[in-house]
Give the backbone structure.
Amino acid sequence: MENALAAWFRIALWKRIVGAMVLGVIAGSLWGPGVESIVWIGDFFIRLIRMLIVPVVFFTVVSGVVSAGNPAKLGSLGAKALLLFVATTLAASAIGVAMAIVMQPGVGADLSGAIPSATQEAMPIAERLISIIPSNPLAALAEGNILAIIFFAVLFGVGLVMTGEAARPMSDFMEVGVKVFLRMTRWVLEVAPFGVFALIAWVAGTLGVSALLNVIGVAGALVIGCLMHMLVVYGALLMRGMLGLSPLQFFRGTRDALLVAFSTSSSSATLPATMSVAERELGVRPVVASTVLPVGATINMDATAMYAAIVSIFGAQAFGIELGAADYLLMLVTTALVSVATPSVPSASLFVMAAVMETFGLAPGQIAIVVGFILAFDRPLDMWRTVVNVCGDLAAATTVAKWENEFDQGLFDQQNTKRERT
């Protein structure tokens, strides 16, 4: 028994997760709808991760602010991160528009069998900004309102810095808390192969492996567009062009987090794994990881922006609405704004696309039909989108860390070289 456990833990985590995915697809295909009897294992894994999100965000953000010391440096980190988030989101929107124009997924699409689905309006930007300030910090912590938690944690951290030596015991407590919760994160990730197996089996068993064939045009445009975005924007432009780092090393270092993202379909649920990977594999120091990644998990939704553009153009093509250059330009801006207002939970993007489709004249009934058509197949697409969003968070954190001299090049190279040998 001990030898079997030792052999299990000697296998790299990412290999165990990939193996669980393959077995999950096979089990789900063979078992069919009966696979729902084991989905509780996946829910158990997700609840373990969600248990850690709030304490990890609060402790790491406070500790990161204290580590920065100078509030001016914190402002520099935030400004550079936001600049990256805006730039990559606009790039993703542009790629989405281009892919939809070239591949034309909506031309000839038959939406007659779609069941209309109710949509909801995207949260206005002003309301989104106001909600950042918690009326009750304890309520924000209890509700898991990530942006409000970040806002309060930053103020609390600045308060500790400005208080000086008298606040040292509290600062030390926050630093120890970070270490404790990241240690717990590593324990939880050991459960990932079992949770991933159950979740992937559930998707394969309930939707069927061939589910995407019914929406192949949209899926193809999204998958190809996301691959282009990851390889060109994150890999070639950011890693190679701006930082002089190996894109292959970067993508290799992100594997564990991306596999968790694929299984959970939630950037927030993946956050503990994302932060662990950033510090242990990519060499991003805590001061950057703790400030950039929680914000990125909440507002940086590159694949969501791309998806909104593709689905919106799909709807216009399906209903024969002609779009001009002004429509596409407006769509770039709107999709970027909508992506910011999208909660980082599974399939949330479907219900905020109304704002985009309304910009070029789709009627509410038509929007409901488009959403109803996509809804049945959204989960597999959402799994892929979350991978890209989390990869974007890690790319931004690595870039800001390099710019701010908070990057451990030796750890980046050493960890990835070691992983290649496993």
Observations:
- DSSP finds 20 helices and no strands in the chain.
